[in-house]
């Protein structure tokens, strides 16, 4: 017995909602996976903020047809598809999938979509080499701290040099007076 129209509409609405919260979608050919292996994939992906959705390609096509950001996904919708919809850490999600893939050797990423752009398998793998959001924030914080430190040291140098200059005035004045008096004496 097939799904009713209301069931299909509910699935499409759910897909749209999850897609709206996601930053990356990976389309995986999962043919040959058992139910326990799909459960294992879901369990591995969950800590990375990734939702693992198994849906008919037709329903996913309907879910993305009006959304420019996800439309490039349609080129990967064929055969048996499972969708990894990444909400949080792209890098960790890709690593978690690759660990799963090493164990099962049954799945393969067909492609992905990030910010309205279709990604090939090589481009998806390149994403895991990028620094994470936390690493980028740490790098920026270090650089901002370095600028603030240099500025503070520079500002500290002004009073120090001014004090040395003021300190030098009396001794310079004494030398000048002594030189004038010696000139007058000669």
Would you give an account of this structure?
The protein has 186 residues and is α+β, with helices and mostly antiparallel strands. Helix content is 60%, strand content 15%. The chain has 6 helices and 5 strands. Strands 2-3-1-4-5 form a 5-stranded antiparallel sheet, with helices on both faces. Strand 4 (108-114) and strand 5 form a beta hairpin. Helix 2 (35-45) runs antiparallel to helix 4. The model has no long low-confidence stretch (mean pLDDT 84).
Q: Secondary-structure map with pairings?
A:
Blueprint: H1 5-21, E1 24-29, H2 35-45, E2 50-54, H3 57-64, E3 81-86, H4 90-104, E4 108-114, E5 117-119, H5 121-127, H6 133-185
Antiparallel strand pairs: 1-3, 1-4, 2-3, 4-5
Helix pairs in contact: 1-3, 2-4
Beta-sheet strand percentage?
5-15%
Largest sheet: 5 strands, antiparallel
Number of helices: 6
Q: Based on CA inertia axes, which overall geometry fits?
A: rod-shaped
Stretches with pLDDT under 50, minimum 5 residues: none
Q: What is the mean predicted local confidence, pLDDT? A: 84
User: Looking across the biggest beta sheet, what order are the strands in?
Assistant: 2-3-1-4-5
Secondary-structure element order, N to C: HEHEHEHEEHH
**Structural class by helix and strand composition:** alpha+beta
Rg: 32 Å
Instruction: Report how far the terminal alpha carbons are from each other.
Output: 124 Å
Q: How many strands?
A: 5
Structural descriptors:
186 residues; alpha+beta; 5-stranded antiparallel β-sheet; 6 helices; rod-shaped
């Amino acid at each position: 017995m097939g799904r009713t129209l209301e069931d299909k509409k509910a699935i499409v609405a759910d897909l749209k909602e999850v897609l709206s919260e996601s930053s990356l979608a990976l389309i995986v050919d999962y043919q040959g996976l058992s139910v326990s292996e799909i459960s294992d994939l879901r369990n591995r992906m969950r800590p990375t903020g990734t939702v693992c959705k198994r849906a008919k390609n037709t329903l996913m096509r309907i879910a993305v047809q009006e959304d420019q950001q996800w439309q490039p996904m349609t080129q990967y919708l064929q055969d048996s598809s499972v969708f990894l919809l990444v909400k949080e850490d792209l890098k960790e999600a890709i690593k978690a999938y690759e660990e799963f893939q090493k164990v099962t050797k049954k799945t393969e990423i067909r492609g992905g979509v990030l910010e309205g752009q279709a990604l090939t398998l090589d481009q998806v793998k390149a994403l895991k080499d990028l620094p994470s959001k936390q690493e980028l924030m740490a790098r920026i914080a270090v650089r901002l701290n370095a600028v603030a430190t240099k500025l503070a040291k520079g500002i500290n140098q002004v009073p120090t040099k001014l004090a040395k200059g003021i300190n030098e005035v009396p001794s310079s004045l004494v030398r000048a007076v002594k030189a004038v008096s010696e000139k007058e004496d000669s």
